[in-house]
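Problem: given the chain below (362 residues), write out its structure.
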Amino acid sequence: MTEKAKISSIQLFMIFIGFLHGSSVILSPAASAKNDAWLAIIFGGLGGALLICMYVAIALLNPSKTLVQILQSRFGTFIGNAVAILYIWYFIHLASLVLRNFGEFIVTVTFPETPIVVTIGIFAALVLYAVNSGIEVMSRLGELFVPFMLFSTVIVMSLSLITTQDFTAFLPLLENGIKPVIDAAFGLMSFPYGETVVFLMVFPHLNSKGKLKGVIALSTGTYMIMSLFIFFRCIAVMGADLFYRVTFSPHLIALLIPEVNMESLIDVNLLIGGGIKISICIYAAAKALSQVFGISDYRKMTTAITVFCVVLSIWVYENILEMFDWAQKVWPFYSIPFQVFIPLILLVLSLKSRKKQLSSDS
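Solution.
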């Protein structure tokens, strides 16, 4: 049974930005470039935009088909299902990593005496409720909460300028050479831009396919601009050295604002992005699993997948330092087949199929 749910352009715009925002503020790979991180944000954003263009092109060449259906169509049923199962693992793994990111954030800055499994379990239960409500409800929640996330980012940014120490902290240019910038840009392409491959399970629900390119271009550009503003705010307030060393820079920025307690606003802001990202990943995994095995309702899969994500999120890291190390050194390379190689093959095969179809029609 095909899900008939539809989402509007503005809803896709909101959940796409929320997904990109996700945990990228907590685990920013661009921070490794220190005061040159703004260059990494630009280069990584341009590279990430190319990846997103590829995903959009695949979706437009295969209208109304999900990633699983595209794989089955281009690779054949057997190989297509095998590759789809790999993607299901990738989506589940990504959801569990983001759960752990936010679990570590909450127990580190807000509830240090609370066991991380309790924090992750409560967050996962809320996400499960949203996923079971369907993609339309998830999109409406994004439409409701993401504007608050964007607005609060601007508010904190404006108030934090009161404590600004040095507007030239991002200089000198390329003080440590170009290599840290390239490394950081590569990490940024994978995280978060390349992770939007998961939206190939969501794009078919857009009620106006002709607006897909414009919506995704606008949301990607908005996120890039927001990332630059966040970087310049953080480095102007904290300086390059502290910006590189601090674990959760948005939280510290909120604490530095005099006479105003903005800590809870930052927490809610990050939880909105994380909630959207985890919800989309679990929804995509459940939907893909139901299509591979011919199950009529993806909701039959969501509870088991969410419980597995919680268990995996606890098991996957020993501590917060390992979490940061994995995100920066392992995840970009681990993601290459899912974000680059397989989508590139799908794009080539889809273009060949379209060319063959046009020549047969003429």
